[in-house]
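In practice, a research group might receive sequence data for several interacting partners and want a quick structural hypothesis before committing to experiments. The following worked case mirrors that situation: the sequences arrive first, and a predicted assembly follows.
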Amino acid sequence: MLTCRRVTELLSEAQEHPLSLRDRAALRMHMMMCDGCRNFERQMDMLRKISRSYVPTANSPSEEDPQPK
Amino acid sequence: MSGALTAVPPGRRPLRDSTAPAASLYHARQPALHVRWRGRIGERLNQTNHNAIGNATGKDRALGEPVSLSALRVKLLRFATLQLGDPHLAEDAVQEALLGALNNLRSFRGEAALHTWVFSILKNKIADQLRQRARRPEIGETVIGDDLDETISIFDDRGRWHEPNRPVRWAEPESAVIDHQFWRVFEACLENLPRQQARLFMMREFVQLDTEEICQALAIKPGNLNVALHRARLKLRACLEHHWFVAGEAAC
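A structural hypothesis for the assembly, expressed as tokens:
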């Protein structure tokens, strides 16, 4: 049985290369029972999307302080 | 703990007006990491808030004004220096990206478009630089061979999530990226990672080099890169959740 720690390692590696069938099966088993790791898996994809759309925040003042009316 | 959650002001900007609510929220949810992180993240966010206020109150921030570009330049330079590990190369790359933008100033509608454009040029320059470097790799293992595992407090001794760190569902992740405040939080979280971890994470996810290219450019082993990326992802995820996604959920 995988630990949550190990699951996060595998899910992180899955962002780099396809996992073995065995690892994937073990992951599925674990995630059927673990909502934390299920959320973690989704968030790895989100983290990637988020990071790819990063733009530095220096001076985007037009969006600074929109006055609530 | 619920008191801390409801104390976050509505409008999904828990870190904006004061770092205090965010810090206490973080504290409540993650006592062990908090001890290590609070000081730095508080400082960092204070700095960005000051900058933001300074810029927002000035009238001199029309597109292409020197103030605006110089602030952007500082940001770009910091990013490029971290990625390239060499201030001179970074300076050159930023200069070229900015010159390109200056020559085409009229074609940008607003600062956001300009920033995006300059930053994507810079990103390509960084990627090229790093790829060329494969023949004379740079850092070697020692820089990453950091045997302190800062993620240890995220799990218990049986490898299960410590309850306050168990990932929860994120509220509206799609709308985060179009929110200027979100990027402040993202940068602050990134700054809180050990420098090499932040560097490798952004090299992989933002500059989008693949793992093989990174290993060649920096002469590190894939195993070490994976460890660094895993730790960076764990911590960045937790930081974003505590400072943005969960706080946002409470406000809705």
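Before designing any experiment, note the following. The CA atoms of residues 12 and 98 of chain B lie 32 Å apart. Chain B touches chain A through 55 residues (CB under 8 Å).
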